[in-house]
Amino acid sequence: MLKEFKNNKILLAYYGGSTAYQNKTNKSDTDVIVVLDDIQGAQHITNEEKQIEYYVFGKKYFIEKMEFDEEVTPHLKIFNDDILANIDPIVLDDSFKETYLKYKNRNFNEYLKPYLEAIIEYYEVFLVDGSLKKNLYHLYRIEEQVQRYLETGEFKIELGGETLEKILVFKENFKTNSPGFVKELLVILNYLKGVKDDVNN
Fold first, then answer.
1. Contacts of 87 (CB under 8 A, 6+ apart)
2. Mind spelling out the 3-state secondary structure of 55-104?
3. Which domains does the chain show, CATH number per domain?
4. Which phi and psi angles does 16 have, rounded to 5°?
């Protein structure tokens, strides 16, 4: 990774995606979130040889993303919880340590409303025509996270065995565009809409 960004100052790098959410398979890419001091906006860089995807952010844009700023695309906001994973960062510059710990240790419950709004806005588009995409598997994990929050008051990203099994089955079979999958995911999406409405009230 250091070779990929040898001309930049890395403030923070940590694992996201299936590594953070504990549903990695032998077919999964490795997702790494990188915060650089000297760029603006965001970039997506793929190292196909090593099967690594880098989601790269300038310092200012990363903070806006983590704050659920309305100017940031919903696709980036729905993964703001991966920083909660119980995995040490790959790189953490001293100058960015306070910012990292702020988001790592924050009370995510306070961000539940914009989190749900981003999820609904993003995933509803994919389910309109019944054509399944691999990334829809995130709805299974989000459902468990939200249910646990409502039951315990804690927002954590660890997943139980039943949810992990659902994700594995979906990843292996999503290309079938099975109506059963579509129906199941729509039920989850409608559940999340109901939770969002309750939060609003």
1. 14, 15, 19, 20
2. EEEEHHHHHHHHCCCCCCCHHHHCCCCHHHCCCCCCEECHHHHHHHHHHH
3. 10-106 (3.30.460.10), 110-200 (no CATH)
4. -120, -160
Cross-strand pairs, 160: none
Q: What is the largest CA-CA distance in the chain?
A: 50
* Edge-to-edge strand ranges of the sheet holding 30-36: 42-47, 52-58, 30-36, 10-15, 91-92
- Report which of 142, 115, 123, 75 is spatially closest to residue 196, judged by C-alpha positions: 115
C-alpha Rg value of the chain to the nearest Å: 17
Spatial distance between the Cα atoms of 196 and 201, rounded to a whole number of angstroms: 9
Cβ–Cβ under 8 Å, residues 36 and 11: yes
| Tokens matching residue 27 | 């077919």
Tens-digit pLDDT profile for the chain (201 aa)? 667 787 889 999 999 988 999 888 777 789 999 999 988 999 998 888 888 899 999 999 999 999 999 999 999 999 999 999 999 999 999 999 999 999 999 988 889 999 999 999 999 988 887 778 988 999 999 999 999 999 998 899 999 999 999 999 998 999 888 889 999 999 999 999 999 988 766
